[in-house]
Amino acid sequence: MARQIWRPGALLAPVPPALVSCGTVDAPNALTVGWTGIVCTHPAMTYISLRPQRHSYSLIKDSGAFCINLTTRKLVRAADFCGVRSGRDTDKFALMGLHAEKASQVSAPLIAESPLALECRVQQILPLGTHEMFLAEIVAVDVDESLIDDSGRLQLDRADLAAYAHGEYFALGQKLGSFGYSVRKPGKRKKTRRFVPPKAPTQPGGQR
């Protein structure tokens, strides 16, 4: 396979066009980030990387909290809008028909239209260059009941999630396999993960 060697760049795809909510329920803001992911299982840890110039940067830094809301096919237009407009002079929730909901553990609001959200509490801020990484603990997972089957298992395929790759949005399509299928013995059923509801909050709103 012939290859060209390019200069270093952030060319990793696909990534989630995640809707990150911050601020408060009364004064919510949302932005879209592609630089996010999971960095640890126990404790559950995630991150988002933001430019310090972003309006949401100071909101998250001051509050120490944000929520990552998964983007569905129906939310792609909102995700695109929230990624190119600033909350300094735009009420993104109002213009995109989004609704802020109170989270169980943090002060940042959830986006009601997203079927799954991670409530995150900032643990560390790492300056990296153009962006700074907010390393955060996932303190609760909010799952719409429509994604949970009768046995209590999470069926994330029902969410109709979207992906982002090189400037374009895509709907997740054909299933190609499941985790571990390459080594699974013929006839052996794969294990399915059971959704475990988060513990009840110890503080109303999870204020820090």
TrEMBL record:
Protein name: Flavoredoxin
GO MF annotation list: FMN binding; oxidoreductase activity, acting on the CH-NH group of donors, NAD or NADP as acceptor
Encoding gene per record: flr_1
Keyword field: Flavoprotein
Source lineage: Bacteria, Bacillati, Bacillota, Clostridia, Eubacteriales
Organism: uncultured Anaerotruncus sp
Segments for region (Disordered): 183-208
All residue ranges annotated as the Flavin reductase like domain in the record: 12-156
Family in the record: Belongs to the flavoredoxin family.
Pfam families named in the record: Flavin_Reduct
SMART domains per UniProt: Flavin_Reduct
Classification via PANTHER family: FLAVOREDOXIN, FLAVOREDOXIN-RELATED-RELATED
Top-level lineage group: Bacteria
InterPro entries in the record: Flavin_Rdtase-like_dom, Flavoredoxin, Split_barrel_FMN-bd
Cofactor: FMN
Keyword Nucleotide-binding assigned: no
Biased composition, class Basic residues, residue ranges: 185-196
Transmembrane keyword on record: no
